[in-house]
Amino acid sequence: xxxxxxxxxxxTGGADGVYGTGTVDAVRWLQANRLNxxxxxxxxxxxxxxxxxxxxxxxGTYIACLNPPF
Length: 70
Description:
By secondary structure, the protein is of the alpha+beta class. The protein contains two helices and two strands. It is globular and about 35 Å long.
């Protein structure tokens, strides 16, 4: 969610841990405007593959990204 927050034109509110309508709308916007996936609002395998996920050691040292940035 923190990766999505601030991406949309009307992204408001805080993370509440609920995959509700606000999250679905934010994911749908991200899919349509930043990722090359179907804009269905589902955070599924296709969306995960397109997002950048940094890798860190247990001590917090940055190693690399699993996927290229969007």
